[in-house]
From TrEMBL, chain A:
It comes from Pseudoroseicyclus aestuarii. This is Peptide/nickel transport system ATP-binding protein. The keyword Membrane applies. Its main location: membrane. Belongs to the ABC transporter superfamily. GO terms for biological process: transmembrane transport. The lineage of its organism: Bacteria, Pseudomonadati, Pseudomonadota, Alphaproteobacteria, Rhodobacterales. It is a peripheral membrane protein.
UniProtKB/TrEMBL annotation, chain B:
The keyword ATP-binding applies. Residues 2-240 form the ABC transporter domain. Keywords: ATP-binding, Nucleotide-binding, Transport. PROSITE patterns: ABC_TRANSPORTER_1, ABC_TRANSPORTER_2. It comes from Pseudoroseicyclus aestuarii. This is Peptide/nickel transport system ATP-binding protein. GO terms for molecular function: ATP binding; ATP hydrolysis activity.
């Protein structure tokens, strides 16, 4: 665990629950971690609560969700207690989020140039002219070389990889110190995926940034992240350095690794995960 | 079992006419599993759709079990030669039909007898309990839905299965169950598989041989051993392989 003093975000006993028809179901059941200037992978299968954890940090859960935590501290502030207008200033400004599919995150009826310019004007309070030149710089930073040509395009006219880089350009307008990336490369082709990951690395090299990298892809997280948390049924069952993922001890993590087809370790038959009810509690 | 000679696949008309597959030649032996890998837009699914008869705007030669098929509508016997399993099992099964009705549909179309019994056997074979036949797709999980798609594809006992990203929408733990099922079925029934995937690790696990597609061309063919050891000629194939290792 990262030393508390270095933590950008510190979470203790995060719980997210939904109640419907008198029944309460807990989607996140006591998640605790600290994230410093590092790439922290959060791995889990569908329904494990990994996305819910990311959204809880952004306070972007539907109003039906009940979020509690012993501590949800970001740069010395308690995010849970922050009034919504202040939270809105944190969101996008100090904590940014990238989602899987840029097609759903970008405004479909506004060209991408105007979207970046708008972001610059809101967050940096720039004039339209300054915002435009800032937008061009940002596009270059995410390796879009012909920014002039790209700015007038609408989201449906750009490829997935281009869309994701535009999202990143908008995200870094305000220099966030924490980035929540929820499956940021899952919808991308592998050649583009590498490019997006390199851009994230370049940004982190410029200033200390915590990256919470939510993914289902064990091979990717193993290579890209510094540390990994494994989530199962709303809890973190194991935490370890990413390059030691193969030494995982929890039977769920072991099961996942055995079930994964691997080029570097071919086997005749994949193992089938046998879920143990005891994992629910640890 | 499948021979393709100079296959070109087109979309659109007039000045918008686009050549998605630009002269692909390959052949797949009986009992073999052949993997077509590539990124979106490489033409891998277009090859599969031309073989399946889902897309008709193509030129070249396709021979299935040594008999030629054309782009025109196929006979019932030709159709019964192959079946497809799609990526998204929710989109592939009718949401308002029960599981049993979905599996029975190809049997009805082909007027096969003893359909009740057949559905029961198929469900059992893909590892689903018999009472599942009364369920609707939304009442079962993604992995179970993919088992239903496989059961349906097996219904006519077609000797060839075309697998279009069959596990890309599934979690790792569910993926292993479905891949194991596909391997068992292949051995048991001497099936021939053509699998389209973007995931080299899955392809290396399942396939005897692979073809790498890029921009409508088949740029390289390799054996499983070559793929595993990294003995590939094209830099692009290497790049795909490294991505599957998590590098990149």
């Amino acid at each position: 665990m990262t030393d508390m003093t270095n933590a950008i975000l510190s979470l203790r006993d995060l719980r997210v629950s939904f109640s419907s028809m008198g029944r309460v179901s807990e989607a996140v059941r006591g998640v605790s971690f600290d994230i410093g200037n590092e790439k922290l992978g959060l791995i889990g299968e569908s329904g494990s609560g990994k996305s819910m954890t990311g959204r809880a940090v952004m306070r972007l859960l539907p109003s039906a969700a009940r979020v509690t935590a012993e501590r949800m501290q970001f740069q010395g502030r308690d995010l849970l207690q922050l009034p919504e207008p202040e939270m809105r200033a944190v969101r996008g400004h100090e904590i940014a989020m990238i989602l899987q599919d840029p097609k759903f995150s970008l405004n479909p009826v506004m060209n991408v140039g105007d979207q970046i310019i708008e972001t610059c004007r809101i967050h940096l309070k720039l004039s339209r002219r300054d915002a435009r030149s800032r937008a061009m710089e940002l596009l270059e930073k995410v390796h879009i070389r012909d920014a002039e040509r790209v700015m007038p395009l609408y989201p449906h006219e750009v490829s997935g990889g281009m869309g994701q880089r535009i999202m990143i350009a908008m995200m870094i307008v305000a220099r966030p110190s924490l980035i929540v990336a929820d499956e940021p490369t899952s919808a991308l082709d592998v050649s583009v995926r590498g490019q997006v990951l390199r851009i994230l690395d370049e940004l982190r090299a410029e200033q200390p940034t915590g990256l919470l990298f939510i993914s289902h892809d064990l091979n990717l997280v193993r290579r890209f992240c510094d540390r990994v948390l494994i989530m199962y049924a709303g809890r973190i069952v194991e935490a370890l350095p990413a390059d030691r993922l193969d030494d995982a001890e929890h039977p769920y993590t072991r099961g996942l690794l055995e079930a994964l087809p691997r080029l570097d370790r071919p086997r005749k038959r994949l193992a089938v995960l046998k879920r143990d009810p005891a994992w629910m509690e640890g | 079992m499948i021979e393709i000679d100079n296959l070109r696949v087109f979309y659109g008309a007039g000045s918008d006419r686009f050549e998605a597959v630009r002269g692909v030649t390959l052949s797949i032996r009986r009992g073999e599993t052949y993997g077509l890998v590539g990124e979106s837009g490489s033409g891998k699914s277009s090859v599969l759709n031309a073989i399946a008869g889902r897309h008709t705007d193509w030129t070249g030669h396709i021979r299935i079990n040594a008999s030629s098929v054309g782009p025109a509508r196929r006979s019932r016997a030709e159709k019964a030669m192959l079946q497809i399993v799609f990526q998204d099992p929710y989109g592939a099964i009718h949401p308002k039909h029960t599981v049993g009705a979905s599996i029975a549909e190809p049997l009805e179309i082909h007027r096969r007898p003893d359909r009740e019994k057949a559905v029961e056997r198929l469900l059992e074979r893909v590892g689903l309990p018999p009472q599942f036949r009364y369920r609707f797709p939304h009442q079962i999980s993604g992995g179970q839905r993919q088992r239903v798609s496989i059961a349906r594809a097996l219904a006519l006992e077609a000797p060839i299965l075309l697998l279009d990203e069959p596990t890309s929408a599934l979690d790792v733990s569910v993926q292993s169950e479905v891949l194991n099922l596909l391997q068992d079925l292949k051995e048991e029934r001497d099936l021939t598989y053509l699998m389209v995937s973007h995931d080299m690790a899955v392809v290396a696990h399942m396939c005897d041989r692979i073809g790498v597609m890029q921009g409508g061309d088949l740029i390289e063919e390799a054996s499983r051993e070559q793929l595993i050891s990294g003995n590939l000629e094209q830099p692009y194939s290497q790049e795909l392989r490294e991505a599957a290792l998590g590098l990149a």
